[in-house]
Design a protein that fits this description.
The chain is α+β, with helices and mostly antiparallel strands and 467 residues long. It has two domains: 47-128 and 273-422, D-Maltodextrin-Binding Protein, domain 2, CATH 3.40.190; 131-272, 3-Layer(aba) Sandwich (D-Maltodextrin-Binding Protein, domain 2), CATH 3.40.190. Helix content is 38%, strand content 19%. The chain is built from 19 helices and 20 strands. It has a five-stranded mixed sheet with strand order 4-3-5-17-6, sandwiched between helices. α2 (59-66) crosses α13 (288-310), α5 (105-112) packs across α17 and α14 (313-320) crosses α15. The longest helix has 23 residues, at 288-310. The radius of gyration is 23 Å and the shape is globular.
Length: 467
């Protein structure tokens, strides 16, 4: 029996028996043993379609597919690139997609009704870090005058203090200073705002209660949405002067010679959460076994991406370079995925944690991560009214589902595919990280005290303030 015919035979047997697990294949015959070690039920839905945006941090989906991790869970997955984040979210809500690579703010924004109202949950964080802020060559030429240098190279991290004189000059001449980000509830929007505000540049407020969702009220720098793959060409055309986006679209600007990445999100907030895998709450309730098995496959993919000090990254880059995934040149993707990052052309530096997929408990859905996003929504007016600390915690627990994650992780441990030491201690884990100190402005974040955190910022809404 050929391998192809055997695989087809195995699939038919698995689907027809609906019990046990395939444990041994000998001489073309299948021996079936009892229920799987983790006692998970079979997937209620086997044929699945997941959406993604063409960014390197969709890697756990591509790897889970290419390495057969989905199929080992009895899941037959189609991965489909989406036009933009809004289309992706809408298709998850209306059921055209079973789940998707999402901006961490999307399930939270949908749940609280900012933009489209829908109950979206996540049980899997896809990565840490992975973004950067890039400016055009002309803007960098002016910024560079205000950046400290050592040995002929800029000292990193570069703060927005060096951009402020440039923005002030634009204002004095009555010219708008424009920057792009990928979506109103994206990490990129909040990171760009955080960086600008830390340098004394006001990124503007939202006022949804007044019908103003531009985010440009009182702004020194005007931020607007641009789809990730279009960022370099939009900047090259002069429509925007800079942008915040995920890879490979910062390195693409370097390769094209049209701009300079000035700061990574790792430098803005070390090991910040980035994307999540989102599904509708209704879908998760209808297909609980399927959901856990999806998370299992993606945990394995994340482990593979980070194991042996990123030894698998070159292979991962080859996968991502395929047209059906990211579709950028191997060299462009590899510039960040393999542990380096190029700022100004020729200034390539080691940044081993630019993309983190598993270590540091990257895949665990921490409530404190969710609350940080909610604080930024409040800080910039997307949440119009003040909220009690308890509200932030309640929303985080509605959306982030570590209980589902724990089921998946425990199953992998029981099967010998993962080690308990690589996960949080589930019996005692609270979902709140210790106070985090590694921000570019040195402000400490404690997710258990969201309102006290907001009070620390010179720019932004806090307490009872509103637009």
């Amino acid at each position: 029996m050929t391998n192809l015919k055997l695989l087809s035979s195995l699939k038919r047997v698995v689907k027809s028996l609906r019990v046990g697990v395939i444990s041994t294949v000998l001489s073309g015959s299948v021996i079936v043993t009892g229920v799987s070690a983790q006692e998970l039920g079979w997937p209620e839905k086997e044929e699945l379609k997941f959406g993604f945006i063409k960014l390197t941090d969709m890697a756990p989906l591509a790897v889970a597919y290419e390495k057969g991790y989905f199929e080992e869970e009895g899941l037959y997955v189609t991965l489909e690139a989406q036009a933009n984040w809004k289309v992706l979210l809408d298709r998850v809500i209306d059921g055209q997609l079973d789940g998707a690579h999402m901006l961490a703010g999307q399930p939270l924004g949908a749940t609280i009704g900012y933009g489209t109202k829908a109950d979206i949950i996540t049980a899997f964080s896809m990565d840490l870090n992975g973004n950067a802020i890039t400016v055009s060559n002309d803007i960098w030429k002016e910024m560079k005058k205000h950046v400290p240098h050592e040995g002929g190279k800029p000292v990193h991290p570069i703060s927005a203090d060096s951009l402020k004189p440039v923005v002030d000059d634009f204002k004095s001449k009555g010219k708008p200073f424009k920057m792009g980000m990928v979506f109103p509830v994206s990490t990129h929007n909040y990171e760009l705002r955080y960086w600008l505000a830390a340098g004394g540049i006001h990124p503007g407020f939202y006022a949804p209660h007044k019908g103003d969702t531009s985010g440009q009220i009182n702004a020194d720098a005007l931020l607007s949405v641009t789809p990730p793959p279009q960022m370099p060409s939009t900047m090259e055309a002069g429509t925007i002067h800079g942008y915040c986006v995920g890879e490979p679209w910062n390195q693409q600007a370097v390769f094209k010679g049209i701009g300079v990445p000035v700061v990574t999100d790792y430098e803005i907030w070390k090991n910040n959460p980035e994307k999540v895998f989102g599904v509708s709450k209704g879908w998760a309730e209808k297909y609980p076994n399927t959901h856990v098995r999806v998370v299992k496959a993606m945990i394995r993919a994340a482990m593979w991406l980070d194991e042996n000090n990123n030894a698998n990254r070159p292979e991962a880059v080859k996968i991502l370079a395929k047209s059906q995934y990211v579709g950028a040149d191997y060299e462009v993707i590899a510039n960040s995925m393999t542990g380096t990052f190029e700022y100004e052309k020729g200034d390539k530096r080691d940044v081993p944690d630019f993309n983190v997929f598993f270590r540091y408990n990257a895949t665990y859905p921490f409530y404190s991560d969710a609350i940080w996003y909610l604080t930024q929504m409040r800080r910039w007016g997307q949440i119009s009214e003040p909220k009690a600390d308890s509200w932030y915690k309640d929303i985080a627990k509605q959306v982030y589902r570590p209980d589902i994650y724990a089921q998946a992780a425990k199953a992998l441990i029981a099967e010998g595919k993962a080690k308990a030491v690589d996960f949080p201690e589930f019996a005692t884990e609270t979902g709140f990280k210790p106070a985090q100190i590694h921000f570019i402005d040195n402000i400490v974040y404690d997710g258990s005290q969201p309102n006290a955190y907001l009070e620390k910022f010179a720019i932004g809404l806090k307490n009872d303030s509103k637009i």
